[in-house]
Amino acid sequence: MKVKWNMNDPEDVQLHIPAEDTTVDVSVEALGQGRYRLTNFPIGACRLRFGDVIEARLLPDGVLEYVRRVERTPFKIYSYIVSSKAVESETLRRLLDKVLDLGGHWERVFGGVLLIALPKGVEWDPESDFPAAEDFAKNE
What we know:
140 residues, mainly beta, Alpha-Beta Plaits, 5-stranded mixed beta barrel, 42% strand
């Protein structure tokens, strides 16, 4: 199953989450009627995931204030700790190309944290194509 989105100019915004008393930087796709799709991994937001559709209010200072999640992500999320050796490997590059070919998304944050989102229903397990095991650790 491929998930295709109309990524009309994703916008980088700050999202304030009152229940977590935090504000995070995220990219969103405006869907109208105060709804936004998260188009990257919202690092620091405990309850939200890449691909979630949320309702939010635009505050006078330009910050979005989270109201509620309208729709859960259609993706299964994986996270791993990767070594600097793995980051530079051709094997990892091919693995990440496959993620994109399957309609998924990936990001590397903090240098060594690899986040992968694959559409639910995709049978492939990214771990099956990882380089040497000592270069990866599943982050659970």
